[in-house]
Design a protein that fits this description.
globular
Length: 108
């Protein structure tokens, strides 16, 4: 990642599941990536979607896929987040969407 875009890691477990953890990623990029990877209605905490999320913690559990999502929105407009126990293909989709969102943000 480019300086100012956060940092993170991806881990794979013995069961073919993946976890990503990122720190201090711009909130707008995270929102765009999640909308791209997860659909338009993934964030149901307010009418402005994730871009307008107030600082705080937003956990989600996907009981169908056994996945866990946790987003910590920081007061400085960044997000620390983790997505756990998802299929590797889903993590790849999320990473590609995040990279596209960050690249678009660089152009602005």
């Amino acid at each position: 990642m480019t300086p100012g875009e956060g940092r993170g890691k991806v881990c794979l477990d013995d069961h073919g599941r993946a976890t990503i953890e990122f720190e201090n990623v711009p909130k707008a990029a995270v929102g765009t990536a999640m909308r791209s990877a997860g659909g338009a209605d993934w964030f149901d905490e307010g009418p402005g979607e994730f871009a307008d999320a107030e600082p705080g913690q937003y956990p989600y559990e996907d009981e169908q896929a056994y996945a866990e999502y946790e987003f910590d929105v920081n007061a400085d407009g960044t997000v620390t987040f983790g997505i756990s126990y998802v299929k590797v293909d889903d993590i790849v989709t999320m990473l590609e969407a995040l990279e596209r969102a960050l690249a678009d943000q660089r152009l602005d």
